[in-house]
Each structure stands twice: as C-alpha cells, then as structure tokens.
Design brief:
This protein is α/β, with parallel strands linked by helices. 51% of the residues lie in helices and 10% in strands. The protein has 15 helices and nine strands. The strands form two sheets. A six-stranded parallel β-sheet has the order 2-3-4-5-6-7. Helix 3 crosses helix 10, helix 4 crosses helix 11 and helix 6 runs parallel beside helix 7. The longest helix is centred in the first third of the chain and has 49 residues. It is globular, with a radius of gyration of 24 Å. The chain starts with a helix and ends in an 11-residue tail after the last strand. The model has no long low-confidence stretch (mean pLDDT 93). It binds 5'-deoxyadenosine and FE2/S2 (inorganic) cluster (FES). 5'-deoxyadenosine binds next to loops.
C-alpha cells in the first residue's frame, strides 16, 4: 500500500502539469475560436455592406474622358477613381495601356530595369494575416543568410549585370542596426557603382537615417492599404497604418528613393479602398510603386479567399503610370505567379522594372509569402536570362545600369 501511495505521490505533480498543459491548450483553442468568429463576422459584414451595392458604372465615353483627365491632371477625385475601376473593359484597358506605355517611353525609352532580389531572412516578428512567413506560422521553415552569403549573392548578381541589390526580409531582430549597416557598407565598398535597396519593414527614424548614412539608396515599404479599417482587417492590432505612414514620411525626408504600394484583390478590398490607395500615393509621391495580386497562402486565415486578378492588377499598373509618368514600377513576381504571361503584360501596361530572384536556390522555397510562388527552383542565372528573353519578346530591352528615378519635367 505504501508503495502505491509513493507512486501516487509521484504522479500527483505530473498530473498537475498535465492539467496546466490542458488548460493552456483549451485557452489557445478558445482564442482561435474567438479569432475565427471575428473573421466570420467581418466577412459577413463585408458581404452585407457590398450586397446589392450599385457600382458607380459610367459609359465608355465617360470612362475615356476620365482616362484623358487622369493623363492631364495626374489624379482624379475619389468617386472618379471608383467609376474608372468599376467601369473598365477590354477596349478601355487598351486605350489606357497605350497612353501608359507612351508615358514610360518618354522617360525610360524601351528600357526595363532589373533588380537582384536577395531574400536574406524569413524570420519575422510580425503576424500579418495574409503572409506566409508571419511569426505564428509554425510550418514555415526558417532561415537566415550570413553576411558572407549575402555578399556572395551580390557577386553572382554583379556578374549577371545587376546594378541594384534589394535586401528583403521579414522584420527580424537578429539583424540589428549594426549588422544591417555593416552589410550595406560592405556591399557599397565592393560595388560602388551599384544601388542598395532595403526592404526590411518598419523601423525608427534613427535607424533609417543610420542605414542611409551607411550608403543605402532606396527603401521599399508597401503601405498595403490606405484605409485604416481595411488595414485592421489585414493586420493584428499591434500594427497600424499610422506608423506605416510615419515610416514612409521619414524615409522620404531622409532622402531615400522610396517605394510603396499595395496588394490588388486583398481580402475585403473594395474599389473605394483602391481609390484611397491611389489618393494616398498621390499625396506621398513615391519614386517606386509596387503592386501585385493578393495570393492566398495555405497557412493563413485567408486560405479560402480568391487571388486578385491579373486583369485588375495590370489595369492599375496603367493607372499608376499615368499618375506617375516617371516612376519606377515593377511588374511583380506575384503577377507572374497568377498568370504565366503576367510580367510581360505588366510591362505592356507601363511597368518598367523586374526583380529576378538572386537568393541562393536552397532557401528560395522557404521565402513563401504566398502559395505557388514562381522561380523558386531556378538558379540566379536562369532567372536572369529567362527574364531577358521575356522582356525582349515584347520589344523591350534589359538595361545594365542602376536605373535611378528620373524626376518629371513639367
Ligand atoms: N499575396 C500577395 N502578396 C503578398 N505579400 C505578402 N503576402 C502576400 C500574399 N499572400 C506582399 C506584401 C508585402 C510584399 C513584400 O509582399 O504586399 O509588402
Ligand atoms: Fe525566374 Fe523565369 S524569371 S525562371
């Protein structure tokens, strides 16, 4: 009996741990259920608010007039943007694309600029609900490149004709300011004729200033959506549109060439939201504007939402080109992912930048922001020459230069 009692006494603390574990699991499950309920009610609210809503469509003559006005004035009123987006058609898009291509040609001829994209870490402290490398995706297999691996990618890239290196990563605290500064300095020392673009998220103004002083030339930070409520539907509460805008303002004031942009067809997005995005970009006047279709990732709550379309994405590239005739506008990988000819179509609609992947092949599949991302199995050189063929097939030419922003003349 006493042996049994001893055994029971031993088991007692264990069962207490099990009970605590069970409670923790129950709490987690309850939080997930609460989260799902909220998403469900947001979805219903969104469907209700759009049900039967007459889209502000106007006839073709009026849409053409809006495009002509956009070309002349570089902006429209919010309602006019909504009409333009809601009333677009194939013929109208052709009209828009022709004007957009001509605008790009005025500043950049038939040049398309290449940027070597180095995805150096997929660790991230954020939990953006659409993103495959958000911190709470336990299925993501995480990696970080060493400084030497990053420099090695630049060396490969330089040989392939890249004169811009884009260092992109999740918001990874492992890369302290000191480390980033060191990497930027090393790249600039080895390749003084190249531009360095950072795309590493929201930081303090002091950090942005320090990277700039170290030699960084450009910074990419998409605003994602300019509507605060829509922003809150795509991001957890600790992130805010306000801070995003603060970052973009700081970056511009410091003197970076700044890129912003948004996803097309993101969950809950309406034509009104897109109009707000365009108006915000008009206010910001960025040097670069990146847009691409939303594509669902299977480890996110948006798994069952549809992708954005290539059709709307290229239409908006055309609109952006008329708003920003001399901007650098990429035809993005996400666009190439949802349509095999997406990147060519983007250039045809007025884009003038492509960003082939320069990351080491063994990590590429791990930088999965969304499902089915293309180019994840190809060597840097394959991607580079594949892109050249694609660009030349539509009568454009890849330029081996930094491809800096050209200010508008008049
Ligand atoms: N679909 C499309 N684009 C995405 N991004 C992140 N997740 C997705 C997704 N699921 C975009 C964001 C970010 C950029 C680096 O990638 O707009 O700013
Ligand atoms: Fe990467 Fe074609 S551009 S394989």
């Amino acid at each position: 009996n006493s042996a049994l009692n001893d055994e029971l006494a031993k088991l007692d603390p264990q069962s207490a741990t099990y009970a605590a574990d069970c409670q923790a699991l129950k709490d987690e499950a309850a939080a997930t259920v609460a989260d799902l309920k909220r998403v469900e009610s947001e979805t219903h609210a969104w469907i209700d608010s759009n049900a039967g809503k007459a889209t502000a469509t106007v006839n073709d003559v009026e849409v053409i007039a809006l495009i002509d006005k956009l070309e002349k004035e570089r902006c429209l009123l919010k309602d006019e943007f909504v009409s333009l987006i809601s009333s677009r058609s194939g013929d109208i898009s052709e009209h828009l694309f022709e004007k957009a291509r001509n605008a790009a040609k005025r500043y950049y001829g038939n040049h398309v600029y290449i940027r070597g994209l180095i995805e150096f870490t997929n660790y991230c402290k954020n939990d953006c609900w659409y993103c495959g490398i958000r911190k709470n995706n336990a299925e993501a297999s995480r990696y970080r490149l060493t400084e030497d691996q990053i420099l090695q990618s630049c060396e490969t890239g330089y040989g392939l004709g890249f004169r811009t290196f884009v260092l992109q990563g999740g918001e990874d605290p492992f890369y302290t300011d000191e480390k980033i500064i060191n990497i930027v300095k090393r790249i600039k020392a080895s390749y003084p004729d190249c531009a360095v673009t950072l795309s590493i998220g929201e930081k303090s103004r002091e950090s942005y200033q320090a990277y700039f002083d170290a030699g960084a030339d450009r910074y990419l930070l998409r605003h994602e959506t300019a509507d605060p409520e829509h922003y809150a539907m795509l991001h957890p509460g600790e992130m805010s549109l306000e801070n995003r805008k603060r970052c973009l303002k700081d970056l511009k004031e410091i003197g970076y060439q700044v890129g912003s942009g948004f996803m097309v067809g993101s969950p809950f997005q309406t034509a009104g939201h897109i109009a707000e995005d365009l108006l915000y970009l008009h206010e910001l006047q960025p040097h670069m504007i990146g847009i691409g279709p939303f594509v669902p990732h299977h480890c996110t709550r948006f798994i069952d939402f549809p992708s954005g379309t290539a059709e709307l994405t290229v239409f908006l590239i055309g609109v952006l080109r008329l708003m920003f005739p001399s901007a650098l506008i990429p035809s993005t990988t996400a666009l190439g992912t949802i349509d095999p000819k997406g990147r060519e179509l983007g250039v045809f609609a007025g884009a003038n930048v492509v960003m082939p992947n320069l990351s080491p092949v063994d990590v590429r599949k791990k930088y999965m922001l969304y499902d089915n991302k293309i180019c994840t199995g190809d060597e840097a050189a394959e991607c580079r020459f594949c892109m050249q063929k694609r660009i030349e097939s539509i009568g454009y030419e890849i330029a081996v230069t930094r491809g800096d922003f050209v200010p508008m003349n008049g």
